[in-house]
Amino acid sequence: MKQQFVTFFTSLLLAINVCCGEDKDPQVFSTNECQLTEPIYGQKFDFNSLHSDIAKVAKSAKGDTFEYNICGNLGRTCDGKNVAACLRRGDQEFVLGTHHVLNYRHGKMFLEFSNGAKCPNGDGDLKLFVHLGCDYTLDAQQSSVTPYAANACSFYILLETPYACLPEPDAVKSNGCSIQDPVNGHNYDLLSLSDFNYRATDRRGNAFVVNICKPVLYGENVMCPSDSSVCFIQLNSTDYKKRFFNYGTVQPNPTIENGNLIMRLPSPTPCNGTSNYSSTIHFMCDDEKKSSKLSFLGVNECVYEFSFTTPLACNDNPPCTTITHGSEFLDMRSLQGKTYELSMPTKNYTLGICSNAGQPCMANDAGFRLSVKCSPLNIIQVGICPAGKHNIPSHFRFCAVIVVVTTK
Ligand SMILES: *[C@@H]1O[C@H](CO)[C@@H](O)[C@H](O)[C@H]1NC(C)=O
Ligand SMILES: *[C@@H]1O[C@H](CO)[C@@H](O)[C@H](O)[C@H]1NC(C)=O
Ligand SMILES: *[C@@H]1O[C@H](CO)[C@@H](O)[C@H](O)[C@H]1NC(C)=O
Ligand SMILES: *[C@@H]1O[C@H](CO)[C@@H](O)[C@H](O)[C@H]1NC(C)=O
């Protein structure tokens, strides 16, 4: 039975190859350039901006240092040569590649470096793969090395970048994704949930991919419309253009209704002639403080209901503490009550941590926006002046940490 199936499958593949020799899968291609046009929406992903004069650096858990550049060579030599990727291990240097190709595989985009040095532990060459993952919010750590065996010849790095994302709708550019409970003053801040997509099934064999606070992150087999936060995937559809549907357009903030934290997401996708599809996400406090979880509750005509359990929906965290992107509990109570100066070329900022900055932020507007560039991490974030707020807006977390480091 199994044997028969395999034979049938092989001949089917042969048949396809014979009949459509020229017709390649449009979802699989490679280019020597630093940009590509994805085949579903015709959107261009341009990675040229990721090139920098100083290379990107990532350290592995084993202590090896990986240096690579995108669309060009490293600023300094590796084993005496000008190359694009280098492995530094102790005082040894190994060329990982002199150039790269950019590959697209069903939504997955990765750079494959080639022409590396001979692998000391094997027959082939050393190789580096850099997976370009969509991330709308810049994190301190942008490159991470996948753990590998001591004798590995191939290495994998994940580089998270907004350049691997579809364009972000204006409504959610630098959104805070927070809301203050009018009853107890608690500030719910959900933005850090946007680092991941969450999945659920509709119990009929189809899938939902959901992002909270940002559009669904583009990636392998997740090529959702650019403004959708709730994406319905018709898994039995072989036509990629009829596989991903917007069932909920991204919203900048959650809302509070009758004391409950929820997000309502309308969509432009027609449902039954009179209504469009829409989704409602009910946020539930997770007392166990474990990871966040999405569940599909059910559908009522055109309205899909989900629950989302997360510690960020709890309102009993002590003031001046927060949960970080890595679900780590960050306690900044010891920094309270002081002000910190942040000197920038054109402006000086005064920052209060979990308190206001000591004087009115701006005469009559406590909600003005400012751009803060935090060197040396090179993170550009837009934040809201924290006057009067008693929680740290997430945009300030990295800046706040840098300020602490420089005043010590
Ligand atoms: C896919 O599944 C839906 C039900 O979820 C069904 O209505 C549709 O006919 C199926 N399409 C194909 C091509 O099998
Ligand atoms: C449904 O979405 C379309 C956009 O595709 C919009 O023009 C229309 O007003 C929406 N209908 C309803 C009932 O919200
Ligand atoms: C379409 O769906 C809406 C909302 O779920 C419902 O109120 C309406 O009665 C439905 N209309 C038809 C024609 O089924
Ligand atoms: C910022 O503060 C420094 C000293 O603390 C001062 O020399 C500089 O002129 C200030 N810059 C601006 C733009 O106010």
UniProtKB/TrEMBL annotation:
<dbReference type="InterPro" id="IPR044865">
    <property type="entry name" value="MRH_dom"/>
</dbReference>
<feature type="domain" description="MRH">
    <location>
        <begin position="175"/>
        <end position="316"/>
    </location>
</feature>
<dbReference type="InterPro" id="IPR000479">
    <property type="entry name" value="CIMR_rpt"/>
</dbReference>
<feature type="signal peptide">
    <location>
        <begin position="1"/>
        <end position="21"/>
    </location>
</feature>
<dbReference type="GO" id="GO:0007041">
    <property type="term" value="P:lysosomal transport"/>
</dbReference>
<protein>
    <submittedName>
        <fullName>(Mediterranean fruit fly) hypothetical protein</fullName>
    </submittedName>
</protein>
<keyword id="KW-0812">Transmembrane</keyword>
<dbReference type="InterPro" id="IPR009011">
    <property type="entry name" value="Man6P_isomerase_rcpt-bd_dom_sf"/>
</dbReference>
<dbReference type="GO" id="GO:0010008">
    <property type="term" value="C:endosome membrane"/>
</dbReference>
<dbReference type="GO" id="GO:0000139">
    <property type="term" value="C:Golgi membrane"/>
</dbReference>
<dbReference type="GO" id="GO:0038023">
    <property type="term" value="F:signaling receptor activity"/>
</dbReference>
<keyword id="KW-1015">Disulfide bond</keyword>
<dbReference type="Pfam" id="PF00878">
    <property type="entry name" value="CIMR"/>
</dbReference>
<feature type="domain" description="MRH">
    <location>
        <begin position="32"/>
        <end position="167"/>
    </location>
</feature>
<dbReference type="GO" id="GO:0005537">
    <property type="term" value="F:D-mannose binding"/>
</dbReference>
<keyword id="KW-1133">Transmembrane helix</keyword>
<keyword id="KW-0472">Membrane</keyword>
<keyword id="KW-0813">Transport</keyword>
<keyword id="KW-0732">Signal</keyword>
